[in-house]
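Q: Convert this sequence to structure tokens.
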Amino acid sequence: MTKGRTVATAMIGAAALLLSLAPAAKAAQCGSSPAGFEAWKREFSAEAQGKGIGQTAIAALMQANYASATIAADRGQRSFSLSLDQFLAKRGATTIVVRGRQLKQSQAALFASIQQRYGVPPGPLIAIWGMETGFGSQRGNQNMLSSIATLAYDCRRPEFFTDQLYAALKLIDRGTLSGATRGSMHGEVGQTQFMPKNILAYGTGNLDVAANALASTANFLRAHGWRAGAGYQPGEPNFAAIEAWNAAGVYQKAIALMGRQIDEGGGAAASR
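A:
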């Protein structure tokens, strides 16, 4: 080997070493105040474009605002620490059961169709519907994309909400949602409050339409192990599917209890 080739080889080796020591491109950095949100959006948008997110969704993301109300709500979820009786009272379980029994009768054909297709009886679906939005009357008025983007930026649970944000951007690209879509504090939308990843996986049509939302909820439960005809109280086979819907134990027990009372259609409402 000539001296020139030796020097050239050494230079190539040195360059390779420097490249290997160079820091990898950083992902968008989380934050705990509004101050870094705009910079984070720019960084995240560049990453999202690299992963195939289209310009419609990117433009919507760049219009998103830091959602201070969402952060406050995320820090203050105290009802899930209540006892079951306290939780039932706070969430208006008696009213949900009474109204739920009426809906089970008035919408009997719809619930029969859902049960035939997915194996899920009316009770737990109606209980979820009533618990989540008061049967569609309280679906939230927060900007969905701003809420989810804020939580993806926030350092408390960025991994979970980053996945939700990518799902929301895909849904915007598809035209299923838009940058103006309204929802609840954490970005849930529709009559039974679906997060974007669950819309992608289990959604059936416009979830602001009750029939679609209820069918989508049944689809979710079936996908998480619901077995037609099996029980859904704590310790019974289908309770695990209710657990998959919401991680809070008091919520799960409330849905099972109210669902049973709606399905049985008699006795004192919301009493154990």
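Strands lie at 142-143, 182-183.
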